[in-house]
Specification:
The protein has five helices and no strands. 52% of the residues lie in helices and 0% in strands. By secondary structure, it is mainly alpha-helical.
Amino acid sequence: CIRFGNLMNSEIYGYPTTLPWGFEFVRSREWHQLYEGLPCHPTQIYEALCYLLLFGLLLYMYWKRNAEEREGLIFGTFLIGIFLPRFCIEFIKNNQEVFEETMLLNMGQLLSIPFVIAGVWLVIRALSRPRVPIKFAKEKKK
């Protein structure tokens, strides 16, 4: 929902594109100064779709694959699923701050790396341990 708010506010968009789904961010002063008339990547939609797919994957893992029996698997997958797409999408986004112009990786990418590493570690750790079946308390009969 936050990313759709970014889209409606014409903020945090990408570089110009020739793809048919490029957007003209007419509500943005910056867009008018830099890219007047050029459609740009709607990176907000890209991120929102990645998050929606991740939600579906996590639901599938929990309900159909019993991933909760492997401690840390769902959370590790969550971290990778949030921060790896963010890392990749940042390559086509405009820089948010002036100091990022001289950086090889921008701040969003640098901040994503530790979370991706933690997610990979959690997934590896979870898959290397045996399953631990979870027993839920039974309802009392009335």
